[in-house]
Design brief:
It contains four helices and eleven strands, in the order αβββββββββββααα. The protein has 230 residues and is an alpha+beta fold. A hairpin with a 6-residue loop joins strand 5 and strand 6. The longest helix has 35 residues. 13% of the residues are buried. Its main location: membrane.
Length: 230
């Protein structure tokens, strides 16, 4: 009989224990596993939390940093009813608040990141009576931005179309100059042309120029037709 009286009390204690365990896991924190940044360009470290309890002035947010080579944790940012960036350390005057607790956002921004900032950042949130059950870490990788050159498909197609045309034009010019030099040896010897030779050569030069222009136009038209067909 005595054992039967203790059973209701044991069930109640077990229920309270399960409720307490469930209560501990009502706060969830989400943060990016990896973030890439460039030297001198601001970067945002995002952190969001989900809490079943309403946000009050008791809510606290803490960001810490551990160098990539290891070492002690370094306080970076603290929030409780207001933003309190670190006043000393490597992130002094380089961290600002970028979140909104009313939207369950605990993000921060790092200004002027350097190569020495490579490491792991941890976002910790407490919203009593909810207690966090996970502590996500964000690996920040800072590098130098290289020269950017992007060749679009249209630009590449234009190069492939007009480059052969330009080569053809150059070859035609070289060939015509060679032909003109063979037909007029007197010019290479430095002899002065007579008025009759000049009058005969002028129409020939105009004819050569006209043929050259015609050939160039045909090459360009042929290239454009090929481009449209592709």
């Amino acid at each position: 009989m005595g054992l039967e009286r203790k059973q209701p009390g044991g069930a109640a204690a077990l229920s309270l224990l399960l409720l307490a365990v469930a209560r501990v896991h009502l706060l969830e924190i989400q943060a990016a596993a990896q973030v890439r940044a460039f030297v001198g360009e601001p970067v945002t470290l995002k952190c969001r939390f989900k809490s079943s309890a309403p946000v009050t002035e008791k809510l606290t947010i803490d960001w810490t940093y551990r160098p990539l080579a290891g070492g002690n944790l370094e306080p970076v940012f603290h929030y409780q009813s207001g933003a309190y960036p670190a006043k000393r350390g490597s992130f002094q005057e380089r961290v600002s608040w970028a979140g909104d607790v009313s939207k369950q956002d605990a993000s921060i921004m790092i200004w002027n990141p350097t190569l020495e900032d490579n490491g792991t950042f941890t976002c910790t949130v407490k919203n009593p009576p909810d207690v966090q059950h996970n502590i996500p870490q964000t690996l920040l990788t800072v590098s130098r931005r290289g020269p950017s050159f992007q060749l679009t498909s249209s630009g590449l197609l234009s190069i492939l179309v007009f480059l052969p045309s330009g080569i053809v034009v150059v070859l035609l010019l070289v060939r015509m100059n060679q032909k003109s030099g063979l037909m007029k040896p007197s010019r290479q010897l430095g002899c002065k042309k007579s008025s009759i030779e000049a009058s005969i050569e002028e129409p020939e030069q105009r004819g050569c120029r006209e043929r050259l222009v015609s050939c160039c136009l045909q090459c360009l038209l042929h290239s454009e037709v090929c481009q449209h067909q592709e």
